[in-house]
Amino acid sequence: ESLINRIAAGEIIHRPASALKELLENCLDAGATSIRVTVKDGGLKLLQIQDNGCGIRRADLPILAERFTTSKLSTFSDLTRITTYGFRGEALASMSHVAHLSVVTKTKTETCAWKAHYLDGVLVAPKPGQTVEPKPCAGNDGTTIIIEDLFYNTPTRLSALRSPSEEYARILDVITKYAVHNPKVAFAGSPLPDLSTSSSSETSHAIRLLYGHSIAKDLLHSTFSSKKQDEAMEEESEVDDRESWKAEAHFTNANYQSKKMIFLLFINHRLVESSRMKRALEAVYSGVLPKGASPFIYLSLQINPRDVDVNVHPTKKEVHFLNEDGITDQISDTLQQALASQSH
Ligand code: ADP
Ligand code: MG
């Protein structure tokens, strides 16, 4: 049974960066405004993430790493309107099957922090022979999740990974993207330039800081929305929000040429992949950029949570959503126009 659990866990946690993505989303779900990441050996030795969010109640700690333990889903019907990142309660459970998982957490109302260790889905004693229960300790409000020796018990998974430096680069990529998308959140830690002291909370400023000043002078900005929503705003009336959507994009003009396309796509504040949308936007640029040159595009799309199908893949990465073609076309058109008018 534990082998099956390990295999299942590997479907969700592919590599250190996918663990980190889940942990980051949990911090943001918890309302954190400050997040600190610590990484050792590309996340394989240590992946630690500290936030100042709402914390986890002492009473919830014993079952924290059991599958389907989630505070984000109260009834089944909630599944159709998921607004937070998480909803399956599988991330921490999975990590406990392929790593040593420890949690230090404190809610505002608790007088001290609590530390707990997990293995294979259950709370365990800190050391053999000690009692199996969370231990009181000193700590700030918020949560620190500590993942040690990731994939220690799945040698095939471990050997499929690249070098620690490659894994580190992927971790950095995920943090950087979330930092761009959450300019008001202070991200700090060894892998990043310290953004916690940055005074500006604007997306374009975050892009400049994280992707380099050279991008900034070539950056265009557009907002989009479905026609329905425009009309609703004008009339100040309620419409059926089923087909309404809005988006915001920061994208480079024809002067900027990257070797590789940099595409950040957030749907309802979740970092996702859509190869269909990526291809469509790439095609827009192929008309204005020389061969071999690629753009930078940050796109944040908000659609009705009911219209997003996050169940297509357990990693919840590649998404599909209602009216995908229509939305993609409208965004492509706007980008095309913006690029065309800029080049005259
Ligand atoms: P999900 O996010 O799908 O609910 P997870 O396995 O990622 O499942 O997390 C399980 C639960 O642990 C969450 O629902 C939440 O209650 C709690 N939790 C995890 N990380 C944090 C955090 N950083 N701050 C507060 N609560 C957390
Ligand atoms: Mg989660």
TrEMBL record:
Subcellular location per the Swiss-Prot or TrEMBL entry: Nucleus
Domain DNA mismatch repair protein S5, residue spans: 207-340
Domain of life, per lineage: Eukaryota
Family: Belongs to the DNA mismatch repair MutL/HexB family.
Protein name as it appears in the record: DNA mismatch repair protein S5 domain-containing protein
Natural source organism: Mycena belliarum
Shown segment, full-protein numbering: 19 to 362 of 718
